[in-house]
Amino acid sequence: MPSSRPLVMGIVNVTPDSFSDGGRFLDHEAAVAHALTLVGQGADILDIGGESTRPGAPAVDEAEEIARVVPVITAIRAKSDVRVSIDTMKPAVARAAVQAGADMWNDVAGLGFAPEAPAVAAVLGCEVVLMHMQGEPRTMQDAPRYDDVVEEVRTFLAERAEKVMAAGVAREKIWLDPGVGFGKTPAHNLELIRHLDRICDLGFPVLLGVSRKRFVQALDPSATSATDRLGGSLAAALYGVAKGAAAVRVHDVRETAQAVKTWAALAG
To answer: Could you count the other beta carbons within 10 Å of the beta carbon of residue 223?
Structure first.
């Protein structure tokens, strides 16, 4: 659970097609080396994903996803006691990952992809991150609409938390994530970050993922490449922690860890 300062979750994509670094760490040895580098740079948690959730991303077979992530988690666990998260929608992948040493299940579908997901999470006993996503990865950016994005996301997350607790997941194991970039326009994303305190007020730790996302390009059209968005990513992350985020999920761990530590020192 959260510490006295916001935590930094480092992203390890074991995929060929993630929006920012797809293919760079598909090789298991490269993924493990990258993960351990992130730990050295200040990552408190490593988020291991074997299926891209970028807009338009194709689905990955369950067995293939397990084959991608389990060897990486096993190798990390043999070399480090860092907290490890598995980024997946599939209960079978989460089960295999926890058996390999993962501590957390980070689910962009809010444990809603499969009917048995909440019950599986309860049996696994790991921490869970419930994220909001309008639609599914392949279609989520096809003209997303809300009457009140903050209230609708807040209501969804509150209802999902109640549902997974009813299935047996302990309240203290639950995190929430508003899902910046998942079925939202740039204006929706800014509104969610601006009012993140309304999500935090639900009483669960909140994970915020703003790293390298396209809303930064909407503000700075020159940031056409994901790697051009560090400044905007840092600004959004620090605004989020000032609003109450307990952790930020990022690609640029060294820079974000330094920024968060400095913010925490200044905030007292």
So the answer is: 19
Q: What is the pLDDT of residues 27-39, one digit of tens each?
A: 788 899 999 999 9
CA dist., res. 173 & res. 78, Å (int): 24
- Residue 28: which residues within 8 A CB-CB, separation 6 or more? 14, 71, 72, 75
Whether 249 is a known active-site residue: answer yes
Identify the active-site residue in 95, 249, 254, 261.
249
List, in sequence order, every residue forming a beta bridge with 105; answer none if it has no partner: 86, 128
The 10s digit of each residue's pLDDT in 199-222 is 999 999 999 999 999 999 999 999
Q: Among residues 160, 212, 213, 229, which one is catalytic?
A: 213
| Residue 162, H or E segment | helix 149-166
Q: What are the C-alpha distances in Å from 145 to residues 113, 149, 153, 185, 208?
A: 21, 8, 12, 8, 21
pTM of the model: 0.92
Q: Which CATH architecture has domain 7-267?
A: Alpha-Beta Barrel (3.20)
